[in-house]
């Protein structure tokens, strides 16, 4: 439901359980209710919480990826879904798990949320992990000691 001229539209899992056609229609409807970032009218923004990366790709300007309750990557949607792609190993694994990509499952099991390590929560599942990952990840747009960089993404 939309409330008047609220500046923020919050959509929490709006496409869960929908078939692809209804997902597309829902994304189109959400898009109708948000303003282009280039508009200077101070219009409405959208915060969409979703597991549906295909829907996010169609509507997002920016992407925040969470793992074990922590934001591990903040990125522009164009570079996240296109080139050079995500930089955090978990973000890359998510995209590679999509059916229209490599359809490769993310290895291992998620951690127990009540027993998270001080360091990287993804380290036990990550092929880039080293002893350094036991320390808290660096602050910034990619919370990773060994993020993918454009040079090794293109290689």
From TrEMBL:
Keywords, alphabetical: ATP-binding, Cell membrane, Ion transport, Membrane, Nickel, Nickel transport, Nucleotide-binding, Translocase, Transport
Main location: membrane
Cellular location(s): Membrane
Domain of life: Bacteria
Keyword ATP-binding recorded: yes
Molecular function GO labels: ATP binding
Oligopeptide/dipeptide ABC transporter C-terminal domain span: 72-133
GO cellular component: membrane
InterPro entries: ABC_Ni/Peptide_Import, Oligopep_ABC_C, P-loop_NTPase
GO biological process: nickel cation transport; peptide transport
Family: Belongs to the ABC transporter superfamily.
Protein name: ABC transporter ATP-binding protein
